[in-house]
User: Fold these one by one.
Assistant:
Number 1:
Amino acid sequence: MAPSASRLVILGTGALGRYYAYRLRDYNPIVIGTTPPPYAVYPPDRPEPDIIYPAFLPWEAPLANPASSILLAVKWAAMPRILTWISQNAPTARVFSLMNGMGQEDIFRRFPGITFLAGVTTDALTRVDPPDGPAGVFLRATGHTWMSMPDSGQPRDFPPWPDWSWESPDAIQERRWQKLLQNSVINPLSALTGVKNGELPTHPIWRLAPPLLDEARTVWARATGQDRPLKPLVKTVQELAEATRANRSSMLQDVLATRPTEIQAINGFLLRQGRRYGLSLPTHEAVVTLIERMAPTPDALWRLLAPETAPPEDGPR
């Protein structure tokens, strides 16, 4: 029987969805997705997991009552399904997104009743789906989350966590660009090599880091009107890779699990913006081509992101 109380809805049952179902368990969220509970959440300081049983509905089940807020905690491959679900269940909701990459706001403009609020998180998570136990998630490192503050102030659906900050949309957009540039280096290079983050700076493929950042910063400059010098960007990304040395990037996790990656929302977003501004990004084009050959983006998502450049029918994109 479907839950009837109006409350927070978490879209997604991957690593991020499981983790926030755990963190928000006292707020009784409804989790929407493909993998039902229970979920095993492994904090970094304890050998045994916490097992949670949040309220759950599959994607195709209707929501009994309107959601007070929606937290997007999904990968980009689920975007077509998200749009269908929102159009049927919550076309006027307030949507808080923790999705990787950029471009979500452009897609959500098709819903004039939606209030879209983007955020950024640096929590390090690893999804686990054992054949003989509950679906789980390992919290590798507790980072920080920044979310756009609604005009009405901090929502009651979210507790006042010390590692969760509410900021202006402009401040969040700056953080999103910073994370996009970091992800546009670490994610594809780790996926192409199969190595953990900390091994990248000493790997031969790290020679691609400066040109990737140089090309990306030109797009960032055209989009925001502010130029960033290359050298500090390279230093910051290298320090991030070393600080998260034990982590497998989300893109590497996707490749290892034979799931679609988020390359089109990260490097692909930069390519599309570059075309908009008449900029050439050959290094990004190369890594996108290579990742697409490893794990092609689903056609339905491709057409949402870049309808003017639909994928060819006769081979990898």
Number 2:
Amino acid sequence: MTGENYLKKIFVLTYESDPHADSICNYFLKKDIKFFRVNTENIINNYKITFDSSSCNYSISEDNNTIVLNEDWNIWNRRILEPIIPEDIPENLHDIILTETERTWQGLIFSHKGKVVNSPQSDYNANNKVDQLCFTKNYGNGVKIPDTILTNDPSVLKYFYKKNEKICHKLLQVPMVIKDGEYFGVYNNLISPENMKHAELINVNPCLFQQYIDKKYELRITALKDKIIPIAIFSQKSEVSKIDFRRYDLKNVTYEKVEIPDNVKKFCSDLLYHYNLSFAEIDIILDKEGDYYFLEINPKGQWLWLEEQSGYNLTKDVAENLL
């Protein structure tokens, strides 16, 4: 694999069972683009990593293959997992191992002289729903936001509920919860009159509530440095996915690449620029009156299922954005 037709080589930070990385690396193989993939959870057993202050470069080895991460390399910071710690390592050392490994990856990315998609600083700054909403309110260029509150005051929630015809509850960060030994995601939910009888429960922690927007369809927009790719998700065709498309009903919900107005494209590009991102997934709603409502931006968002459902080759665009 020579990569003679491309000036840049790609250093991929991911994990072993990541289908997105599989798709991108397969594209690189077909195009003869040189890359080095690190499945980060296996750093203890499979890789040797070294920083040398004389060059301020990192080197990393797998088996007999060693690379030096100089400016010829771009980094795809896809998703870094905690290392799998061998069973014979004392438990009181685990926190040290996890922290030192995390700081090692941070040092590698922060000190890198080439392109990084995306830097941890940019990912962190972009991952706050309140800041995203405030940016959109001030610089939305015609893109709207749902009426929103974040509160632990039941009286504020009751007023907000009375003010809006329908509201939904959203988490600031979607967690996984365990029930009967299985993992479940917690997604958006409409608030019912029965729920409001227990409004005092929000005393425990601040909760985010939004005006519910009746949708024509939802948009998952892959935003790249030089390209904006909107895929429409016709979630209203299914009762399962009507409130939140992440309750997937792939048999009944159709996906299609669509066109969006220039002002919405510009807004997506402005979001990337504001957070210093080279890639993100942006969720927007088109309502039944033709207005566009911003929901959130995710700098590590998933996109491969959009390709599979719509038939549009996102792998090519995402891969070329890394070069």
